[in-house]
Amino acid sequence: MGYRPPFFRAPAHFSFDAERRTCNMLLIRHHTKDKGDMGLGFVCADLLSNGIQVALPLSEHLPFDCIAISDSGELKRVSVKYRAAVNGALEISRRSVWSDRHGSHVKTHPRGAYDAFAVYCPDTAKCYYILENEIIGTYLKLRLCSPKNSQKKGVHSVTLFTNPKRLFDPVA
To answer: Whose CA, among 41, 66, 76, 132, lies 20 to 30 Å from 58?
Structure first.
């Protein structure tokens, strides 16, 4: 069977053939995790294509998903979200929601846990960048199209949030 470290216990869905040096593993897919990974991939590609370097943390238990690094070396902790449009808008929340065998869980991240949000929208195939201080309260709604009632006050158009360089803009 070959050497296995004493701490290694293979899960039931994993098999290893030492003679053939092959592994067979039943992949367990988590749809919401896949969407988060897609969002992170698109955001990293967008940042890199705009001249912003990206560092990925080793832990998944941090409130941010990546670190954006400017040309001057300035660092910004970025929380990445994957959001589909609902009624012509994207809602960005400072909450994380997940489910496990113990039920559904909601965690609201405190201010200062990250510097910005990056949101990937599959409907527009674009990324949007929101600074942490632009979210008043617990969420922000970005409009993909003009409101039907022609409201202007308090409406945030996605066109203002497409440039990733705004993460480092001191005026923004």
So the answer is: 132
Looking at domain 30-168, its CATH class is alpha beta
Instruction: Determine which of 10-24, 80-94, 107-121 has the lowest per-residue pLDDT on average.
Output: 10-24
| Strand positions, DSSP E, 12-170 | 14-17, 22-25, 53-55, 66-69, 75-82, 89-93, 95-100, 103-108, 116-121, 126-131, 139-143, 156-157
Q: State pTM to two decimals.
A: 0.76
Give tens-digit pLDDT for 31-70.
667 788 899 999 999 999 999 999 999 987 788 999 999 9
What residues does each domain of the chain span? 30-168
Quote the CA–CA distance of 10 and 105 in Å, as a whole number: 28
